[in-house]
Amino acid sequence: MFYMKEILKDILSWLEPKVNYADLRFVQTEEESIQAENGILFSHIVSTNQGVGIRMLADGAWGFAASNNLDKASLQETAAKALDIARASALTKKEDVKLASEGKHTDTYITPITKNPFQVSPAEKIDLLVKATRMMLKDKVKKSEGSFNFYKTNKIFVSTEGSEIEQTIFESGGGITAYALGEGDFQKRSYPSSFGGDYATRGYEFIEEMNLLENAERIAEEANQLLVAPSAPEGVTDIVLGGPQLALQVHESCGHPVELDRVLGKEISYAGGSFLTLDKLNSFTYGSPEVTIVADATVPGGLGTFGYDDEGVPASKSYLVNKGKFVGYLMSREDAFKLGLKSNGAARAVSWDRIPLVRMTNVNLLPGNLELDKLIGEIKEGLYLDCNKSYSIDDKRLNFQFATEIAQEIKNGKLGKIYKNAIYQGITPEFWKSCDGISSGKYWHIWGVPSCGKGQPNQFIHVAHGTSPARFRKVKVGASK
Amino acid sequence: MKDINSGKELVNKINSFIKNYNFEIIASEGRSELTRFAESYIHQNVAETNFALTVKVVNKDRVGIVKMNSIDDHIISENIEKATEIAKISPKLYYHYRLLTPQSYKIKSKYSKDIANFTPLNRAQLVKQLIKEVNKRGYEAAGAFKTEESTLLVANSEGVFAFDRGTKVDFNCVITQDNSTAYASFVDSDISNFNIKKITNELLSVAFKNVDQVEIEPGVYTAILSPEAAATILDYTGYAAFNGKTIMEGKSFVSHNQGKKIFPEIITVSDDPFDEFTMPIPFDMVGCSRKKTDLIKDGVINDGVYDHFTALKYNRKCTGNTLPPEHASLGALPFNLVMKEGSNSVEEMISSTKKGIYVSRFHYVNILNPMSIQLTGMTRDGTFLIENGKIVRAIKNMRFNTSVVDMLKAVDMISKEKQIKSQVIPSSGLVGPVVAPYFRTSNFTFSSKTSF
């Protein structure tokens, strides 16, 4: 790492007189991926990946080039390429790009972990996954799958502003899924969450705390029950969203629309824009007074937790929605400057070969003060919906629709029979205004989402959402067919 | 790994490191550059060069896989040692693993020197030209312009050696003025077919019509899908229903409907690397040669596509659709979806529609129910109401919840014109573009509205 840092600093010195600003990132990632199906190992892959990304402002415009060739001569070529690119960008510039001010940081950050996942024997990890997927094969569950992924990422960041930051980030995660198969139908249940499970910036202790074996039979049983369950009823009703589903609701209907680059039109051709336009900041009622949402990259263990973002801005906590009022965006230095603000440390790149974009960190819905029994108990007729199966939202993040793996009837304050194929649909601010109760911190958990896609070239970044089950009134529900 | 000889050297080097085990390798090297613009200026402009090497060490029915992005001998040898250790201790696979034997390849990617030599300045100049024209009409432009060259090598210790080199240009743009928007895209392996003036005119022509949108009630409508919209539907259909692994597991619509004539005879959908419009690679990620597979033939559900592992497990034939090891658990996906052309023109479709909706583009499509291929998504960038044979006005965007099975059953017109469109499912990696015509269906369910 020391040798690499010295090369980066040499390249930076070469660039300094030629540019308005430059930063260099060396990123080295070690990854272990294990997959099992039906009680048998499917694959075990160990990967290493490293390279340098060089970003700069020259002639007032951006250029970026990245290479896996790490010798000094190759990196100097890469820097020269980035310079050419910046000069080409300047051909269409309207004004010089300016960055919000940021201090000079010299620091080191390492994810605190108890058990290094790369020092746990592969046999132990494989054995756990194989057992869990075998245990799910009950009755109509003819297919089960599970996966673990572990990452160790070393990063060095240096900039012409004098920052020198080294970080080592550990991430661990995984999950299991049971598929019950019937004639012309199948139903699935996942644990702890769908689409790969749950992830955290923690060590192997995170996997051990999941209690996969203790939950494997339960979700298999639920998958079997879903196969013979009726489809969810159609209509308008009160709902409670469980933690994993609420995490995705926060992700799609709050996390993305508060990304300032989307608001400024920078993603319009691909992922779309946002209804949270600049005129709405500090004046728009996003949700009910129950709803407070923060971006907090400092919370221990969150998958969006780090020391510094990829522009060298320290991790921070900032309010996005405060007691229902829309009060803040996720920002990069460039976009924050346009609002006369400082960056809140949300510019992140998935790897050395990608530029930092405005990304979620841990976008958390703060807990309320209700016991779960009371949250459900105050509903006469409704549905408890959990674990995402399908998601879609329009290009301004207003009209959303989610399908969940499982729905449970709520009648006179009690949970009843289960339904399959449930969907619910709404318009973002109307939906959040209908939130009249959030369960307490006792039920709160930060759900890791390892696959948030954005940008061209596409970047799948790791983010998280802290949630506890919450109640929404008069929501349109139905069933997929 | 710029040429076939450096590919052979790499294979020999790996062979010398592995010694006593069988192996498969995938090596790719590429240079990709992308200019992104929004609010009528270039706001992101990037280039990357990378190399990726995957080595699978095969110890009878046990395998170990390592992936790296360095050509350094020391790193390759260290990783191969790791893979060998994994292959020794791993539990056995659930099927007898057999390496593929040497194949012959009938197609190859197109390589254009013009694309390989295209510079950031070349891209910026074309973007500037487009911006200037749309600005004159009061519109802002946003989009992405990518040029790339890549080499791909797949080999194994049984003598499979597959080498390919190709280029690609991929462009998309949205223009906006308040709620008036339009979208256009272009993908090809040759940049000489790229005409920025034509794209600009196409964008402005749609945008001028897409104004003063009115709200209409959701419901079941006759819909005419543009090739862009049709390609999105086909892409998700291929993913949801025609994956051999999910078919074998009983998790696909095809599992229970193979051989049935469900759709009108005019519906034929294939995975066809030989189609004149598509951009094929000659082999899959174990070196199996790409083949044409009819997914739906003359309205009859035929079969899906199969990867090497699913084929081994279920005693099927690999169709040349194996994904790289990191995506192998998905099964197989069609790489070159093609919907067969019909005999109509889009003008005939519109003029013979009493009441219907024309869809330019879909947004954020997802699968609701894989067994009925029920999809959901939104319209964007130009949705129009057709009345009495004419496009009468633009309408606000709507959500659809519609079954592809029901939709295709009710197709009565398909255009003669076909277009090639980039695939839209971002995580499917190797999946190539989709070749789609316009088509009309009388059964398309719009389920809710949005405010713009």
Q: Could you say which overall geometry of chain B the principal axes of the C-alpha atoms support?
A: globular
The pair of chains with the biggest contact is: A-B, 87 and 93 residues
Q: Gyration radius of chain B, to the nearest Å?
A: 24 Å
- Give the oligomer, counting copies of the same chain as homo and different chains as hetero: heterodimer
Describe this structure in words.
The complex is a heterodimer of chains A (481) and B (452). Chain A contains 10 helices and 23 strands. Chain A is α+β, with helices and mostly antiparallel strands and 481 residues long. The longest helix of chain A is centred in the N-terminal third of the chain and has 18 residues. With 452 residues, chain B is an alpha+beta fold. In chain B, a hairpin with a 2-residue loop joins strand 15 and strand 16. Chain B is globular and about 75 Å long. The termini of chain B are far apart. Classes of the chains: A alpha+beta (481), B alpha+beta (452). At the A-B interface, strand 1, strand 2, strand 3, helix 2 and helix 3 of A face strand 1, strand 2, strand 3, helix 2 and helix 4 of B.
In short:
The complex is a heterodimer of chains A (481) and B (452). Chain A is α+β, with helices and mostly antiparallel strands.
